[in-house]
């Protein structure tokens, strides 16, 4: 949302060529509960900078094991294990630091839920966990043969718990966006899709786990891959709707200013992860359908397994092409902003690791599917770049660990009944967004709105 920090703490949206309406007023006019986003709740950004939930999306270990040169070798497996346990440590560290933050300052959790941007990054929790589950199956169990049946079913149970958390993010965050948060098109970022990506990520993990479960129960594996296909469908459909609106925002208002331009990389995550997921699901259906007796006329066809595989593989390539499109937009947007300003490191940069990592992993996977040297070379190069990005973010994040436990005094956020009545305040006399050049709109979004860049990924 776009905000002006003033004595009256207005919240406004770009509405028309001559009128700037308050976000609260627009909700009350529709008979909804007022949504207060005043100076205390939003512009007090300092309490969010050190405990941003995007720090949980930090896993990157599978790239070593899947690296096309030396793939599956002992050195690569060892490197995967090193980063596997390192990522677990980072995952636990940021969990502990975040929980400590909430214990020392209980209002921080409610404040983050009310925040229209920071609340979306809670979706990084289940996404960070799924990558750990992936390595547990592919490396710990499949490669080293550690764990056996009990280990596989433990990971399977954790996956179902992860689905429950993902569902809470998927429906809960979108519900808060609709009923509690105030948003505007100029201030929109790709972070809107974060709650939606949780289902897409969980679907790919489900397909990986289904392959391991198949060795003990074909029926359980079939249920797992079917649920994964359901999750993928929901996540991909809603993400496509949101990204359609996001393209409109980019065309009308240009790339997000300053640090928020990094959010343009986020659509890469949903497109690449969906591509990877649908490819795995198709391969797993091909293996499972002959093993599961069914009276369905569809599954009883001899051609059904191969048909599903061909369809899913084709869809995977189409989604990979979609991911390449978003990479080009993200790089162009980053270069555009770097020409104007310097980007400073913040913990929200963890949100860059996951989307770039899944694209590298997807490209390597397609190299195996198509046996194509092009995908193999591109995947290797992108994996190295993602690893360098991970190293840079990890180093700078560790330097900020002491600040995670520092608390700051925050003014009390007014309750709903105590919120300032927007009807009693006169709207600020601000220029029309439709009559401003794009450069002027960007300056309104960033330079004239304190804390705007801190409310989005950066």
Automatic annotation (TrEMBL):
One of its GO terms (molecular function) is sulfite transmembrane transporter activity. InterPro entries: SLAC1/Mae1/Ssu1/TehA, Sulfite_efflux_TDT, Voltage-dep_anion_channel_sf. Keywords: Cell membrane, Membrane, Transmembrane, Transmembrane helix, Transport. It holds the Pfam family SLAC1. The keyword Transit peptide does not apply. Residues 416-458 are annotated as: Disordered. It is found in: Cell membrane. Belongs to the tellurite-resistance/dicarboxylate transporter (TDT) family. It is a multi-pass membrane protein. GO terms for cellular component: plasma membrane. Gene3D superfamilies: Voltage-dependent anion channel. It comes from Leucocoprinus birnbaumii. The keyword Transmembrane helix applies. Residues 424-437 have a biased composition (Polar residues). It comes from the Eukaryota. The chain crosses the membrane at residues 77-100, 120-144, 150-178, 190-210, 216-238, 250-270, 308-335, 347-367, 373-393. This is Sulfite efflux pump SSU1.
